[in-house]
Design a protein that fits this description.
five-stranded antiparallel beta sheet, five-stranded mixed beta sheet
Length: about 220
């Protein structure tokens, strides 16, 4: 029979060895370290607009969003911005996931965002002749739509909304300038004047998905 002090010494040694090798820990053989999963791969890239109309010296901001295969938004990814042609029509000033596009001369250009080999692009048209008025059909032909759903005018310009027999409204959402929404009606034409540059999003609250945009440009 071993002396008590030898049993105590062996027990103490066992505790030391157990601590050294991670005894009783359900580890993976690597000292209890768990490697983080690899970052999700980029499956798609989208832009907040597919087309923009600008006057020379006018600017707009385009933003890119990367998503994984499950549709989850991915943050912290590097976005490479480019424009073709590289000079003559539009210039770009990248700022992370966004880019400021400025019209330089009449013509067309393509702005492209690339994130881990996935791309998205927007067509830019630069023209010095944007009209001061536009017409929008409200539910024309019985369709639950504004036609066209995107018009461009210069500041101080007017958009004429015309109804075709079905009740709709024109409700502006967070407009950049003072503009009155149009309440429910089914006929007639209502002119709306836009004095402040910016993007005016609107919809019909009666019919979900019936949306439109007015972009107001510098004179």
């Amino acid at each position: 029979m071993e002396p008590p002090y030898m049993c105590s010494s062996k027990f103490a040694l066992a505790l030391v060895l157990c601590a050294a090798i991670g005894c009783g820990g359900g580890g993976d053989g690597s000292g209890g370290t768990t490697n983080p999963p690899p970052p999700a791969a980029v499956s798609s890239v989208s832009l907040n607009t597919s087309a923009a109309l600008l006057k020379p010296t006018e600017s707009t901001v385009i933003t890119a969003t990367a998503k994984d295969a499950n549709g989850n938004t991915l943050t912290g990814r590097t976005v490479d911005w480019s424009v073709l042609p590289t000079s003559g029509t539009a210039s770009i000033a990248p700022n992370g996931s966004s880019v400021t596009v400025t019209g330089t001369a009449n013509g067309q250009a393509t702005v492209k965002a690339t994130v881990e080999q996935k791309t998205a692009q927007a067509q830019i048209t630069v023209t010095s002749t944007i009209g001061s008025s536009a017409d929008v059909g409200v539910g024309a032909g019985g369709a639950l739509a504004f036609s066209p759903d995107h018009v461009d005018v210069t500041s101080g310009g007017m958009v004429n909304f015309t109804w075709s027999g079905v009740t709709h409204n024109v409700t502006f959402v967070n407009p950049p300038g003072s503009v009155a929404s149009i309440t429910d009606r089914s006929s007639g034409t209502v002119p709306v004047t836009f004095n402040t540059t910016g993007t005016y999003n609107y919809h019909c609250t009666i019919h979900p998905g019936m949306d439109g945009v007015v972009t107001v440009h510098i004179p």
